[in-house]
Input
Amino acid sequence: MAVAQPTKPVETVETVAIRFVGDSGDGMQITGSQFTTSSALGGNDLATLPDFPAEIRAPAGTLYGVSGFQINFSSTDIYTPGDTLQALVAMNPAALKINLGDLETGGILIVNSDAFVPSNLKLAGYAENPLEDGSLHQYRLFTIPMTTLTREAVAKLELKTKDADRCKNMFALGLVSWLYDRPVEPTLEWFQEKWGKTDPKVAEANTLAFKAGYFFGETAEAFPAQYRVEKAKLAPGVYRKVRGNEATALGMIAAAARAGKPLFYGSYPITPASDILHELSRHKNFDVKTFQAEDEIAAMCAAIGAAYGGAFAATGTSGPGMALKTEAIGLAVMLELPMVIVNVQRGGPSTGLPTKTEQADLLQAVWGRNGECPVAVIAAQSPPDCFMAAYEAFQIAVKYMTPVILLTDGYLGNGAEPWRIPNVEDLPPIEVRHATDPATFQPYLRDEKLARPWAIPGTPGLAHRIGGLEKKDVTGEVCYDPANHQLMCELRARKVAGIVESLPEQTVMGPDSGELLVVSWGGTYGAVRTAVERAQRRGLSVAHAHLRYLNPFPRNLGTLLRSYKKILVPELNLGQLKMVLRAHYLVDAHGYGKIQGRPFTVAEVFAAIEKMIAESRL
Amino acid sequence: MATTVENMAAREWKPADYASDQDVRWCPGCGDYAILAQAKKALAAAGVEPDRITWVSGIGCSSRFPYYVSTYGIHGIHGRAPAIATGLKIARPDITVWVATGDGDGLSIGGNHFMHAMRRNADIKIVLFNNRIYGLTKGQISPTSEKGKRTVSTPYGSVEPPIHPVSAALGCGATFVARTVDMNVKHLGEVLERAARHKGTAFVEIYQNCNIFNDGAFKYASDKAERDEHTLVLEQGKPMLFGVDKKKGIRMTANMQPEIVTLGENGVTVADVVVHDERADNPGIAFMLSQMAYPDFPEPIGVFRAVELPTYESLLEEQIAAVRAKKGPGDLAQLLRGNDTWEVA
Ligand code: SF4
Output
C-alpha cells in the first residue's frame, strides 16, 4: 500500500485514549484488537479495555447490545486504558449514547452517519438525530457515511450487501489508522494471514475497505491534521503485546517446561477464563494436555488426578466455577498435592456480570472452604504480569506441595499491554523431586518446609493411599484421633504460612512512612499507581503498596502498614482486602470500593486519596 | 524391600500381593468382602503389579476400597472418582486405573461424571457396588432403590422409579458393560477379570448385599436356591437360556419385545431363543436386556457389551504426536516471542 507523504500537518501528542463502539455484531473487538497490534508494533506503551455484552449477538441497535474496545496508547509509561477519551468512533446511535459521556470536551467524535436512521435512533432513545440538532457541538464531530463508502469500496467484488457491510469496521480502522499515523502493514498482513488462504475474497474486501478508510482520511477535507504518538521509551528489550489470559497460559507452559514436566490443564468453558483453555489447547507440541471436562468439579478433580500422577496440573475458571470447585480444592489441600487454580474474576454474585471485571472473590480464595483449609493465594497486576504470576504459582505449588490460587480478573484476562519478553534462561529454575526410596518413604513425612513427599504411581515400593479423611501425621493413615486432627490442621496452616520465607519483602512506591499508604492488589495496579503518582506530584505524602501475595502476606507488611497515619484500600469490591488487613494486623484500614463491572479510573482513586488526606487534616 | 522394576515384571502375582496392611472396616457379612477378594484375584490374574495400579474412589462404604488394596490409591470426594481417574489416566496412560463406586456415589451425586466417563472411553475400570441403599449415611433410598421402598428418608415409601446402571452405561456408549453378583463368587471373579483385560472404559455393576440396611435386596439373584430361575447368565454366542434345567429362554415377539418361552412348549425350540452377542455394533439388544427386571424377567448377569474402540488417551497421544510431527517439539523461546514483536534499543 503506497502511503503518501503526509500532505496534511502532523501534530504530535503524548497520549491518546480512543474507543471503538458499535453493535456486538459490528466487529468492534477485532477492530480494537488490530488497532492495538499496530500501535504496539509502532512502539507505543499501551493498555486496553475490551467491554462487551454477555449476549453473543444482542439485537442490533439496542443499548444493551453495545460492544466497545478502548485503547490508551502513549509515548510515555502508562498503566491504565485511560479515564477520558480523546477520540470516540461510534458505529450507531446506541453506541454513541452510551459512550459519549466519556469523551473529553473538544474530543474527536467519528460516527457512521448511515446508521443514524429513525429506527436506530428510536432504539437508542433519541427523539432527535443528535448529528443534526447541534447537541454535539462541544466535540470535533466527523459524520461519515461509512456504510455507503464501504459498499462503494468493495463494489467490484460483487458481494452480498450483508457481506459488504461487514467490512465497515475495517473502513473505520483504516480511517483511524490514518488519523493517528499508525503503520498499515501489520493490518494488511493480518488480513492475508486470517483469510488469505481460507477466504481470499473476504481478505480482499477487508483490504479494500481498510484502504478506503485510510485514503478517506488523507483526502477528505474534513480532517485538517494527523496526530502522531511517538514511540515510548520503554526498557530495552524485545516486546510483544499480550493479553492476560494468554500470558497466564504461557506462564504455565513455561513453568512446566522449565521443570521438565508435562502440563495438564482441565477446564470447563466459562467467561472470561475460557481463553486460557483455548490458548493452551493450541500448544500440544509442548507436552501440554488439555482436557475440557464435563463440569467445573470434574475439571478440578481431573487436575487432582493429574497432579497425583506427577504432572504440573492446573485448572482455570471464574467466580461461579470457583464455587463449584470448592469441595475439590479442599481435597487438594488434604492430599497436599501441587496445582494451580486460576480464577479470572468477574462480576458476581451468582452469574452476576459475566463479561465485566471485579475483585470480589478474594475472601472466597483465602477462606471459602469448609474446615481449616489454607491455600496460597497470589494475584497478577497487569496483563503481562499474568505470565510471571502463573509461573510463580507453580514454583510455590511444587516447593510446598500445595494448591495455589492465582487471582486475575476480566480486565486483566482480556486486556492487552506490551510485554517485554523474558529470556527463557532468566526464568528461575523450578526443581521437582519425586520420592523414590522405599526405605525412607512415608506419605506425610514432611521436610523442613513442612512439604510432604511427592511419590507418583509406578514408583516401585512406594504404593500408598491418600484421601480426604483426616490422616495420621507422618504415615498418612486414616486417623480420627482428636489431638492428631489439631496437629494436622496446624501443620497444614503452618506450611502455607511458611511460604512467606520464599516471598520477597513488600515494597512501596513513595516514602517509607508518612500520611497515607494506599494498598491495592490485582488488576487495579495501573489505576492506583497512576493516581498515587499524581498525588505525589501534587506534593501529598502518599505511598503505594501493591500486594501480589495475598496468602500469606509478605513478612514486613505489618510493620509497613503501621508506618503511615492512614491506610486506604481501593478495590473493586465492598472492602475484602481491607477486612483481611484489619483482621490480620489490627490496623485502621479504610476502604474505597467500586463495584460496577468496570476498572477504577485514575480520577476516582485520586479523588479518594485527596479526600482521605483532607479528612486526616481536619 | 527395594524391589526393582525388572524383577517385579518377571513375577507371578498372587491375590495376597494386592492385600494392604489396613484392617478392613466393613460390617461383618457385608458383600464388599467378596468383591475385595475377587478383585484381588482378578488383578493377579491380569498380571499388573500393584505399584502400577491406582484405585480411585469417592465416598460411601464401597469407596473405602482403595485402603484395602496394596496399590496406589486416592480416596476422593463424593461422586468424583471418575473425574479424578480421568485426569490421572490422561496424565499417566501407563498406569492401570480402577474406580470403586456405589449406587449413590456413582449414579446420584456423581451421575454427570459417570455419564462422561462412559462416553469418553478412557482405559478405566469402574466397579459399581450396587446395594440399592445409602449405607454410610445410614439407610436412605438410593437412585437404584425400588419404588415404594420404605427407609428413614421415605417413611411412607419412595415415589421414585429406580435407574438401571447397566442401561445408563449403555446409553452413554460404554464399550464394556457387565453385571455380576457378590455371592456368585466364581462369576464375579470372571467378570472382574474380563473387565481388567478390556481396553477402554469397563463398567461392572455388582449386586452387593448391605446386610445392615438392605439385607436380602438381591436374594432372588444371589440365593443358590433361587438364582437360576431369576438370573440369566449371558454367554457369548450362546442362546439366552435360564432356569434350573435351562429349559426357559428369551424370545423376541413380533413387535420386538422380549418374552419368556419354555423349550418344548408350543413348539418352541432353542432356535427361537435369542443368541447373545456382546460384540454387536448396535447396543439395542444389550439395552433391552438391561431393562429386564425381576420379578417379570430373569435379570441378566455377565457381559452385556464388549467392543473395542480407541481409548481417549490413545487418541489424545496420537493427536499430540501428530502436532509434534507437524510443528516439531515446542521451542519455548519461540512460543514466548509469538508472531509480532518489536525491539526497544
Ligand atoms: S453399611 Fe452395608 S454396605 Fe456399608 S459396610 Fe455395612 S453392610 Fe456393607
